Amino acid sequence: MFSEVMRYILDLGPTVMLPIVIIIFSKILGMKAGDCFKAGLHIGIGFVGIGLVIGLMLDSIGPAAKAMAENFDLNLHVVDVGWPGSSPMTWASQIALVAIPIAILVNVAMLLTRMTRVVNVDIWNIWHMTFTGALLHLATGSWMIGMAGVVIHAAFVYKLGDWFARDTR
């Protein structure tokens, strides 16, 4: 029963779920209900826009890359869209909705156990950790391995923050 409910919620996709998560998270942080709703609505609109842009970009770049590969007699099967294309695709992955709170919990746990002094306030940059988890999930088909990838990547990033803190002051 629980797994069916979770599957239904996750199947709604990030365009629906991330705004709901933002609304709930904003309310927990003490924002007014109207501001919470507005923040969630903006995230939802942004996701729809990102999806449209990525679709248009791939529709435009894909044929151009294929023509270039044919003209230069190259055997290319992948279009590299860089981080502007990779990060929204990562946020749209099946694992993203769970990876975000996991990466935040790793940070909180490391802070409470004094394993780090880094407080990650830039939620957008969790996409790197989510990307690792999404790749592992896609490669293995295992949510647990994907989540382990998120945890390991997050812990490593927070430790890197500690190690390089002196150099960036």
TrEMBL record:
Keywords: Cell membrane, Membrane, Phosphotransferase system, Sugar transport, Transmembrane, Transmembrane helix, Transport. One of its GO terms (molecular function) is galactitol transmembrane transporter activity. It is a multi-pass membrane protein. It is found in: Cell membrane. Its main location: membrane. GO terms for biological process: phosphoenolpyruvate-dependent sugar phosphotransferase system. This is PTS galactitol transporter subunit IIC. It comes from Escherichia coli.
